Amino acid sequence: QVQLVESGGDLVLAGGSLRLSCAASGIVFSVTAMGWYRQAPGKQRELVARITSRSSASYADSVRGRFAIFRDNAKNMVYLEMNSLKPEDTAVYYCNTVVPGPLDYWGQGTQVTVSS
């Protein structure tokens, strides 16, 4: 069955950096476009970064230039490098598929808290 396990979240100061990791299993990872989503308290879940199977990346306006998504198909891993973090980046971050959309299954996510 599908498993998505996110890790790497932490409490950081504004301006800091974090790298999130996601281990995927139960999907044909190497041909699957993946994304990082986040959900802040009281807000809907949003897609912030996506990467095709060939590592073409795109970003939400709110994170472009600060976040970078990359993947390692040999390890079934997808990563999110986050720099210049802002308090508004505070959220639970999840990885999931992006084409045609996320799976019904969601992992536990990883909490990112940015303090000012």
Shape: globular
- Bin the helical content: under 10%
What's the mean pLDDT score?
Answer: 97
How far apart, in Å, are the first and last alpha carbons?
A: 40 Å
Beta strand count: 10
Cα Rg: 13 Å
Please state roughly what percent of the residues sit in beta strands, choosing from under 5%, 5-15%, 15-25%, 25-35%, 35-45% or over 45%: over 45%
Main sheet summary: 6 strands, mixed
- Poorly predicted tracts of residues: none
Q: How do the helices and strands follow one another from N- to C-terminus?
A: EEEEEEEEEE
| Strand order, sheet with most strands | 2-10-9-4-5-6
Name the features.
116 residues, mainly beta, 6-stranded mixed beta sheet, 0% helix
Q: Can you give me a brief rundown of this structure?
A:
The protein has strands spanning 3-7, 11-13, 18-25, 34-39, 46-51, 57-59, 67-72, 77-82, 91-97, 110-115.
